[in-house]
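Ticket #4471: structure output looks truncated?

Reporter: J.K.
Steps to reproduce: submitted the chain below (511 residues) through the standard prediction queue, then opened the result file.
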Amino acid sequence: MNAGLAARFDAAEDFQDASHYMGHASQAAPVWGKPDMSVMKANLAPAVPFPVDVLGQLWPLVSELAEGAGAPVEYVATSMLAAAASLIGGKRWVQAWDGYEQPCILWAAVVGDPSSNKSPAIDVATLPLRAMEADLAEYHRSVMMSHAAVAERAKAERKAWEEKVKIATKENVATPSMPDAAESPDAPERKRLVVQDSTPEEMASILSGNPNGTLHLRDELAGWLDSFERYSAGGRAFWLEAYGGRPFVVDRKSQNKPLMVPFNGVSVLGGIQPEKLRDSLLGVADDGLVARFMWVWPEAITFRRPRQVADRARLEAIYRRLQELYRASDETVTLPLVPEAAKFFEDWIAENDADVREAAGLYASFAGKARGLALRLALVLEYLAWADTAGKEPETVSVASLVKALKLVEDFLKPHARRVFGDAALAPVEKDAAALARFIVKQKLERINARDVQRNSALPTLKKRDDVEQATEALMEANWLREAPSRQGDTPGKQRKDFLVNPAVHGGLNG
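Returned output as attached by the reporter:
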């Protein structure tokens, strides 16, 4: 038998075995209906791309960093904005007009499946902060050595003073005053650029020694969102305050004096999986916390080997320049919008207010906070452009920066907020059916088994039999699946719960 004929014979045997295994389901099978391909999206709003012109000359750098990380460029761009905001922090504020100012604080959440490379994208945008933190750690070591010397001197001065007090008491004379040098100074708080896991009490302590704020970086935001009340009551309230940058006082019985936080400002950056959005966003009453985030959920991309090597030194140079911004501890440096920008902003507010009135739920809350977000983004974009050049530090926020910020909010962040909040509000069966549909297409499956679906680690929300049944029923209604119960061979017993997949799902013919 020649090789070609043998291959055809083997293929025929395989087909016979499959037909027998499926209980001859292919015989006299009814004609398939047209599959509803929209079930894969579960009515999900489209993922719009990041506006290229918003980042100007920085766009090629961001694109190359994203390509190197094998991640959507939207992840890297959004992460860079949050990192830059954290470095500016309390050093600069933005003012639309008298009485309306915003701090430089951004919260960003990148959404995607476990394989979407959220973490590599965040890492590549924040990697320079690690080197900068290492420099600060070395500086802190030298500061602590000086502090140790002062502290030892204070111990000696206090001991000498205590001896004088004893003598004065014995001789019944006036008690000598304690010299200033006898008071032991508080240990200096280490300068921090990145904090990854912290309770509100620990974060307040860190902020007391970091008057310009810091970045709270979480690889998985769901854990952070679920932890607010785990350690002590009021955790969620603390983080709500940390978006505003106002002074904060922490009173604790374990402390001799109140802990003063001059700038309670923390930028937040992290990733979250779509499956966890529902619990994290809808599990508590809307208090405005989730509306403070820039939610970004792009379509997954096909990985390819990078064609360019990103200039990471350029990104580090930008971050270092932002870090070196100076302000005296007793002053607030505020950049006003130029008059023309203020007029643009006023006109846009009227349009945004109309959007708020027509919206509902979490999206309405997001749109309501968009005006503050737009101002913060305008300040960050102004300083990113400055830090990438050798020019003079800006004294105002330009029309160009404000217009770019408004474009980012309207053309990118609002559509992504609709996408995220809409998905969170979907019924679980719709989300499960969509996840199963995407899995079928990705794996090019021609049939599935309910038990195999339940056991598959790639389908984390389909671990209960009832959930699998509801998802498969939904896909049968959408003309994706058809029941094809079977059992191995001719043995008696309970049949396998198998389903045939409509060939048209993979681009084949119906029927």
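Triage note (M.O.): checked the attachment and the full token line is present. The two ends are 34 Å apart (CA to CA).
Status: closed, working as intended.
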